[in-house]
Write a structure and sequence with these properties.
Blueprint (H helix, E strand, L loop, with lengths): L3 E6 L9 H12 L5 E6 L6 H6 L3 E8 L7 E6 L15 H12 L4 E8 L11 H25 L1
Parallel strand pairs: 1-2, 1-3, 3-5
Antiparallel strand pairs: 4-5
Length: about 150
């Protein structure tokens, strides 16, 4: 069972939307441990609810168009009050928290790290603004999860 679950998600074929998986893969190079699981995914799916229910902390990493390019925000999430009975093509992290609680009896603490993207066109390269903040995001996520990993040891 992973005490900490990190999920970087996004479409690598849409420019900066691929920053989530890129950060997840960079974290796999610098973080390890029996109580850590890191996933680089195209999108969130309902099957992740069980993985979330087995963690004490879940960190979601995604690109957004609502922030300035290269701007990084961290927010703590809550499960939604609504029932998780509607499955769509795209799921929000809060849905997974609600589903974890309702389907498996436990919702973890969860943080969402968002990165403002500059380019969401059909291409595989990250914009210079997003590329420039990649190492800072990796360091911030590593710092965020360290207390959870050390308390699990």
């Amino acid at each position: 069972m992973a005490r900490v679950l990190i999920i970087g998600y996004g479409n690598r074929l849409r420019g900066d939307d691929g920053i989530g998986p890129v950060i997840a893969e960079e974290l796999q190079k610098c973080l390890s441990g029996a109580h850590l699981r890191i996933l680089a995914l195209h999108q969130l799916g309902p099957e992740l609810a069980q993985d979330c229910s087995e963690a004490d902390l879940v960190v979601f990493i995604d690109a957004v168009q609502t922030e300035s390019p290269g701007e990084v925000s961290i927010s703590w999430l809550r499960q939604e009050a609504a029932r998780p009975d509607f499955i769509a093509h795209y799921l929000e992290p809060q849905f997974l928290l609600t589903a974890a609680k309702q389907w498996y009896g436990k919702a973890p603490a969860a943080a969402l790290i968002t990165v403002g993207g500059a380019n969401f066109k059909y291409e595989t390269e990250l914009s210079p603004e997003v590329t420039a903040c990649t190492s800072r995001i990796v360091a911030e996520v590593a710092e965020l999860v360290q207390p959870w990993l050390h308390s699990a040891a």
